[in-house]
């Protein structure tokens, strides 16, 4: 039984008319004796496939368990980085204000010196 026939057999309880129509139109091997999908043998699962599925489920459960921890660590990093960024921004604002004050002082000092020079000339 090929994969398409297996898929049709699995879908037949849910979509009987469509799967029967497709089944009738597919070419069959001489070894297949079922005239309808309703009386065809249901696909059997191999034990190796079951083991693979169980292993995948176990691996998936590990991922699902680890996901909240990873998210919380990322949130902690994000919060810390946001805090550091806010601190750096505040520092830049303060330095800009100090720089402006220093510029204003230097301009005022130069103006005062020019004024003093004008008075004493």
Quaternary structure of the protein: single chain
Distance between the termini: 112 Å
The share of residues in helices is over 70%
Question: What is the average per-residue confidence, as pLDDT, rounded to a whole number?
Answer: 80
Structural class: mainly alpha
Supply the key terms.
77% helix; 121 residues; 0% strand; mainly alpha
Explain what you see.
The chain is mainly α and 121 residues long. 77% of the residues lie in helices and 0% in strands. The chain contains three helices and no strands. The longest helix has 74 residues. The mean pLDDT is 80.
Could you give a quick summary of the protein structure above?
The chain has 121 residues and is mainly alpha-helical.
Q: What's the helix and strand layout?
A:
Blueprint: H1 3-11, H2 16-25, H3 47-120
């Amino acid at each position: 039984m090929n994969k398409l026939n297996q898929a049709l057999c699995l879908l037949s309880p849910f979509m009987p008319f469509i799967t029967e129509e497709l089944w009738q139109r597919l070419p069959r091997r001489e070894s297949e004796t079922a005239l309808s999908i309703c009386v065809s043998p249901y696909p059997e699962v191999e034990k190796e496939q079951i083991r693979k599925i169980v292993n995948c489920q176990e691996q998936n459960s590990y991922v699902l368990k680890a996901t909240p921890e990873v998210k919380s660590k990322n949130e902690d990093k994000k919060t810390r980085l946001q805090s550091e960024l806010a601190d750096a921004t505040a520092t830049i604002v303060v330095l800009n204000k100090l720089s402006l004050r220093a510029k204003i002082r230097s301009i005022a000092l130069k103006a005062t010196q020019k004024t003093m020079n004008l008075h004493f000339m």
